[in-house]
Amino acid sequence: MLFDASRRSASTMSKIELVDTHAHVNFNAYKDDSDEVIRRALDNEVWMINVGSQYSTSKRAVEMAERYEKGVYAAIGLHPLHLETGLVKMKNDTEEIQFPTIEENFDYEQYKKLAQSPKVVAIGEVGLDYYWKPKTKSKLGLFKEKQMAVLFQQIDLARELDLPVILHCRMSHEDLIKILDYKLKDINYNLKGVIHCFTGTWEQAQKYIELGFYLGLNGIIFKMDLDDAIKKIPLDRLLVETDCPYLTPSPIEGRNEPAFVKYVAEKIAEIKGSSYENIAKITAENAQKLFKI
Ligand code: NI
Q1: Is it the case that residue 195 has pLDDT exceeding 80?
Q2: Which of 8, 90, 123, 267 is most buried (most C-beta within 10 Å)?
Q3: How far is the CA of 167 from the centre of ligand 1 (A)?
Q4: Ligand 1: distance of its center to the CA of 243 in Å?
Q5: Can the peptide bond before residue 145 be classed as cis, meaning omega within 30 degrees of 0?
Q6: What torsion, rounded to 10 degrees, do the Cα atoms 149, 151, 157, 158 define?
Q7: Is the pLDDT of residue 149 over 60?
Q8: Ligand 1 centre from 125 Cα, in Å?
Q9: Spatial separation of the C-alpha atoms in residues 60 and 76, rounded to whole Å
Q10: Backbone phi, then psi, for 72, in 5-degree steps?
Q11: In what order do the strands lie in the sheet with 165-170?
């Protein structure tokens, strides 16, 4: 095993059922009951990583994690939807209620300072998002360049701090794969991380696996048919997550939360013809290994 011995023995002392590797209890959707939501997860032996999408939510994730002795961790980063490009006007969609599109520039030193907390276990969520894009070709080129440049900066931060990355990728798998391949070869660095909310093809999954990444699955697997890729992804590269408050897994309705990650594990078990216990155990071990928790 590749676990650090001291960390490993500390974590096995308390039983862990599952790790929700991508939650947003730091978002406004939980402003009135975040502690209850976290407690409900911890009472069910579900640990979580609350993921920031810009400076304010990153800071909140860190403060939240620091209130708990164990089981609650933070990731910090600037999501591409929050990046100031001056090139595209954000449109309304259902997400916007809880995902206000306040734009900012990436401040390396500011995030680095935030990462001094021992509860920060990853840089994320960072990545590429081409859902809202400029209409002209020249603007589109600049738009993509800007997203890539900020992703590079955040990969550099992860490298400096020796942290894994949590990658967001929407309508941009080809570019992300090219960037990771090129960037990692260029700097000769073995970057670790997860492609969160993976909805790509098996061919794309294979590419990420070759590059050394994990694939994170959540409630979207109840809505999209990803069975072919799920069946083929090796268990040692799989992570479970909720992406709460979004993507509530069936049979639950309404706001999602970390405790519901068990439904995702159950669904993966069903697709893979494995047991829930096996999927829970292996994905929890994968999360502990990747994020050193
Ligand atoms: Ni997210």
Answers
A1: yes
A2: 123
A3: 9
A4: 5
A5: no
A6: -150
A7: yes
A8: 7
A9: 10
A10: -130, 120
A11: 18-23, 46-51, 72-76, 120-129, 165-170, 193-195, 214-217, 238-240
pTM of the model: 0.91
Task: Collect all residues with Cβ–Cβ distance below 8 Å to 125 and sequence separation of at least 6.
Answer: 22, 51, 52, 53, 75, 77, 79, 166, 167, 168, 196
Two tokens, residue 81: 């939807």
pLDDT of residue 90: 58
Which tokens hold the place of 52?
Answer: 């920031």
Per-domain residue ranges of the chain: 10-291
CA 169 / ligand 1 centre spacing (Å): 10
Please name the residue that has the structure tokens 């993976």: 198
Kindly report the three-state secondary structure assignment for every residue of the chain. Answer: CCCCHHHHHHHHHCCCCEEEEEECCCCHHHCCCHHHHHHHHHHCCEEEEEECCCHHHHHHHHHHHHCCCCCEEEEECCCHHHECCCCCCCCCCHHHHCCCCCCECCCHHHHHHHCCCCCEEEEEEEEEECCCCCCCHHHHHHHHHHHHHHHHHHHHHHHHHCCCEEEEEECCHHHHHHHHHHHHHHHCCCCCEEECCCCCCHHHHHHHHHCCCEEEECHHHHCCCCHHHHHHCCHHHEEECCCCCCCCCCCCCCCCCHHHHHHHHHHHHHHHCCCHHHHHHHHHHHHHHHHCC
pLDDT, tens digit, for every residue of 77-128? 999 988 887 777 654 444 443 445 567 889 999 999 999 999 999 999 999 9
CA distance 222 to 258: 16
| 10-291: CATH class | alpha beta
